[in-house]
Amino acid sequence: MHNLSFILNKPYDIEFAERPHPNLSGDRDVLIAVNYTGICGSDVHYWQHGAIGHFVVKDPMILGHESAGTVVQVGSAATSLRPGDKVAIEPGTPCRYCSNCLAGRYNLCSEMIFAATPPHNGTLTGFWVAPYDFCHKLPDNVSLREGALIEPLAVAVHIVKQAHVTPGASVVVMGAGPVGLLCAAVARSFGATKIVSVDIVQSKLDFAKDLASTHTYLSQRISAEKNAKALLKKCNLTGGADVVIDASGVEASIQTSLHVVKMGGIFVQGGMGKADVSFPIMAMCLKEVTARGSFRYGPGDFKLAIDLVANGSVDVKKLISGIVQFRHAEEAFKKVKEGAVIKILIAGPNEQVDDELSLDSSGKGIMTKTAGIC
Ligand SMILES: [Zn+2]
Ligand SMILES: [Zn+2]
Prior knowledge:
alpha/beta; 6-stranded parallel β-sheet; about 25% helix; about 25% strand; globular; disordered C terminus; binds zinc ion; L-iditol 2-dehydrogenase (NAD+) activity; oxidoreductase; zinc; metal-binding
């Protein structure tokens, strides 16, 4: 049982090495063999820069946090799971004792131990130990590959909950990367009837329309106010959108958002980009906009994400551009950096796949291989 791991030493310096096989550290722990891991923008950012904000990679760190796996061993008190169960791994363990944890906002726990956030190792490894209640059992009709998409879907669920999307709402989502696409899909499943995806890449908008959006808007190189006006006109959103979600982190999109949201509407910042931006605070004030942040996921978000996949509301298979073997993980990172794919999954070191994505870098466009491979 190999515990080969994908380790970041410093920017662009990757190493594959065997790491000690982890053991259960308490009777509520579960040992999981990792089957599939999706590559996230944050993993790529650490690989390129060795840091995100004040999180700096000082010692070698295993990357990855979007994983699904198979239960191998359970502690005596981990009664809800059995060896052989397929699970989506929730990759952050909170302290459970601080005021935020006790208030049910464990994503805001200051003692959070989160995978692939320095100094903590991630899940691009053979085996992973986690508390049983952070390993979410996948029903029979949800595959392990879909299971690796549950983490980003839970991020989207949390964002859309923060946006208080209600039946009949109009929702504009800035950015059609994985999280923006998933926000659009979750908004639709929450009953939104007009869902507008916005991006600067037409092929991503085409994809959004195929997945969930009712309308799209190709952002222009004009002022935020003008973009907002053109968007509202094109999408017949007189008076503005009920909800605007920024899933891009781009300053111009954030500015446009505040001009797109209606009087008294809701704006949620889901994307992370520059730490500081110029923000149209006058529009926010005059329109009495409710603005919220959104960070990772909290109670019930993983469960709902799994339910949305299981009941067919969100087809996460469509987002999987391809699968690569573990030994090709670094090439997969390069693909994600090039923007050539939506979501690449890395098969765990103990997982063999026979439908590997070809990694020659000739394929332009956002999908080198399309859906339906789960
Ligand atoms: Zn992520
Ligand atoms: Zn806590």
